[in-house]
Amino acid sequence: MKLIGIVDTTFARYDMASSAIDELYKTGTGFEIKRYTVPGIKDTPVAALRLFSEYNCDLVMAFGMPGPMPVDKMSAQIASTGLMEVQLKTMKHILEVFVHEDEAKDDRELAWLCDNRSREHAVNAYYLLFEPDKLTENAGSGLRQGFEDRGPVNSGSSGHKH
Amino acid sequence: MKLIGIVDTTFARYDMASSAIDELYKTGTGFEIKRYTVPGIKDTPVAALRLFSEYNCDLVMAFGMPGPMPVDKMSAQIASTGLMEVQLKTMKHILEVFVHEDEAKDDRELAWLCDNRSREHAVNAYYLLFEPDKLTENAGSGLRQGFEDRGPVNSGSSGHKH
Amino acid sequence: MKLIGIVDTTFARYDMASSAIDELYKTGTGFEIKRYTVPGIKDTPVAALRLFSEYNCDLVMAFGMPGPMPVDKMSAQIASTGLMEVQLKTMKHILEVFVHEDEAKDDRELAWLCDNRSREHAVNAYYLLFEPDKLTENAGSGLRQGFEDRGPVNSGSSGHKH
Amino acid sequence: MKLIGIVDTTFARYDMASSAIDELYKTGTGFEIKRYTVPGIKDTPVAALRLFSEYNCDLVMAFGMPGPMPVDKMSAQIASTGLMEVQLKTMKHILEVFVHEDEAKDDRELAWLCDNRSREHAVNAYYLLFEPDKLTENAGSGLRQGFEDRGPVNSGSSGHKH
Amino acid sequence: MKLIGIVDTTFARYDMASSAIDELYKTGTGFEIKRYTVPGIKDTPVAALRLFSEYNCDLVMAFGMPGPMPVDKMSAQIASTGLMEVQLKTMKHILEVFVHEDEAKDDRELAWLCDNRSREHAVNAYYLLFEPDKLTENAGSGLRQGFEDRGPVNSGSSGHKH
Predict the structure, then answer these.
(1) End-to-end CA distance of chain A
(2) Of the four, B45, C114, E118, E162, which is 20 to 30 A from A121 by CA?
(3) pLDDT at C68
């Protein structure tokens, strides 16, 4: 039985963790979930570290919604740097699922984007733990989480074989 | 008995630590407080680390007020990076309570913002130590410390259930 | 027998890893390859670290394609910082092979650039492992991977001897 | 007997260390001084670390003068990040005394600023080592080193008590 | 006998390492040199670390030439951060000798700048290892490597004594 950690914030304006948890249970079995909520994204790295060290999680998903101001972008950068550091301390993956508030044109799209990105990254989390070959099959395919996939640059061309 | 560390600066233009300490005592019991004042925000990380290592604090609140100039923003980034590093070394939370001087339109609003943000983060500190479920109840709710809460993007909609 | 690790992403829009693997086999022998695909560039550092620690790789090539937006540039910076950290933890080289999507004027050039840069860095990887003197012979020569070499500033001059 | 380390550079255009040393001796007793000069600010962190590890310094003051160009600002950021890291490795304070060359309107003001900031931070260094309560008394007071103090935002108001 | 490590790149457009090596031999004796060439500046930190750990170098000079584009500036920042980290791991100095391609107005000046900066930093390296007092004598003197020295701000004034 694997253990997937979920870190999220009260700052975010959408309950992305619940979308991801719902999608994880639709995708497969063989895991349990441990959730840890903190105030803001800069609090997520130590929460993730504690999930790894105290609960022995196998992978963590970290959800956050940076605001639109420069100070928010700086917070996102520092949070990401911390999440990176935790991964390198623990040798475990953290999937960072951040939706920047200014990625969407209005609240409706923002809610959709949060739900969709969380679900698509939940599938990535499942693949990393249980079916890593599914990721290699899609290497270089221009996949996106949330908005539409970009696709590979050479789709339709005959010059390159995967 | 828990021990909450308080780090603040002589650079800040408001005594945010006193607001937080006052609010902590209003919020609950079961903790003591240890305070450590340094000149500026870049001095706060090592102070926090010493509070964890010498006094065995369970959580630290770090208060600072970055100025409006680019050099001040850089100082804030470096201080935040240091506070992150201390959290990952100690596996303990540091709540960073920074009020950027240019967040407020005048000194009156700045004083109000400092007081209010410090108090709201004091409650977050209490929850992290004593009632973590209170945070999960508010996951994705768009809470803010200081200015008004943004609220969830799907409030009033019928499309999503928490 | 050396082991070369390959980390790539499903986010990238070109299968750069396959170009590099093809070129490695054209360049020489004495190595095997282990591939690890992750969703995005910020997932590459921990993948590289696992290739070093679990499979004892001697060198890793990390392939990624940062998008054109500021948030993508920040992701690239954080990924690079993580790849740096992994190198310093393991004392092994990681050749970072990033192609920024906005380096090319269209998809055709982007595909060409991805293929070419991957191949030229594959040769660098081979030299680092098997023929380091080939690199010293070209020190200060203004070599580039992908686009045309810039060349040395003093080519044609008589004032300086290598 | 405490030992205060002094790190400075040949790049800076003012001998800030001598100002600080002079002020330290005016401020109190109970310490000795060890000085280590390096070429530029990016060389100061390892110098500080060596002062801590080889000479067992209790605190280090690091003096530098970043130039006005973007490359200089980047150097300052990297130096500060390194000084932060050294503090967290040693659990000792480093007071970073940087004067950016473009903070002053001319050379005369620059010399005055260097001298004054160095002296005021020398007093901070003394307080950190010998009289930490002096800092707490001034928490939130808007103190500055070099230019005039900003003062607290609520001076003269009746709405807040320290 | 001291050992000076030299790290340089095939990306740079001038063989700065050869200038530095030539100048080191003109400056003094008592050292040997070990050279390690890598593709680009982001590869220099792990090369420096290997020179320290495998060859027991006493000091490393790291040569690089960041290009003029934002992506190049980011690479320089990451390389510098890595070189900083290596210094703090090993407690040894790395003199970073970077010449940004856009510092010079044309190729001729670029070549001159590379040669001159490399030579002047070679002397700094020698002083750090063999005559550290020479650096303290020049503390605060506004020295530059490459372009003309800026000099101290108080030259000619009578208000300040070193």
Answers:
(1) 34
(2) C114
(3) 92
